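ARCHIVE CARD
CATEGORY: sequence design from structure
SOURCE FIELD: tokenized fold
FIELD CONTENT:
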């Protein structure tokens, strides 16, 4: 089930979704796989002001955890869009995006987004954004993932480190997000 985008203004009714899964999906127990996917990551970062940061709830994770506490005929696997919106705008050459770091918070079930200026106006600003993240109290430490190592190296301005561009930082964010989700799923399965 792909619910795509979950707006911060929308509350998903877990009981209604439970009824849909139990009553409307034929033979769900015999399916090879069954996944619930969605995201609350915004389509654009316009809601995060320039040179600021914002915490956004990972509603897809909260919904999936809530479903695990209901009486389902079969519990879905978890799926999300990582640090992207399902309708991610196509990056066109003439667009000049703002530098940003998209960081999943493992202990808060949130995204932490730090946004800078347009990349073409302030080159090299990823160094400052990385430094801001490492000093924010939300950073998991350089040994948490390859992405966190990259963030730390940029924040410390280690020789040969970054800063990279938006493609590199998307890789950094996804790598960190995958580690967060894998750890969260492992903890859920252990309990």
């Amino acid at each position: 089930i792909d619910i795509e985008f979950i707006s911060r203004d929308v509350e998903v009714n877990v009981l209604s979704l439970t009824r849909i899964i139990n009553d409307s999906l034929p033979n769900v127990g015999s399916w090879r796989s069954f996944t619930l996917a969605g995201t609350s990551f915004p389509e654009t970062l316009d809601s995060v002001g320039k040179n600021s940061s914002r915490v956004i709830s990972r509603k897809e994770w909260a919904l999936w955890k809530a479903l695990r506490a209901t009486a389902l005929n079969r519990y879905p696997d978890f799926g999300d869009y990582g640090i992207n919106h399902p309708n991610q705008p196509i990056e066109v050459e003439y667009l000049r995006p703002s530098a940003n770091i998209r960081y999943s918070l493992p202990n808060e079930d949130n995204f932490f987004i730090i946004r800078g200026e347009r990349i073409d106006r302030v080159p090299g600003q990823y160094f400052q954004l990385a430094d801001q993240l490492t000093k924010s109290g939300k950073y998991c430490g350089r040994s948490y993932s390859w992405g966190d190592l990259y963030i730390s190296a940029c924040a410390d301005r280690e020789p040969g480190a970054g800063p990279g561009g938006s493609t590199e930082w998307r890789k950094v964010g996804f790598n960190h997000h995958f580690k967060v989700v894998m750890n969260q799923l492992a903890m859920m399965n252990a309990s």
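CARD ANNOTATION: The longest strand covers residues 110-118. DSSP finds five helices and six strands in the chain.
SHELF: design records, drawer C
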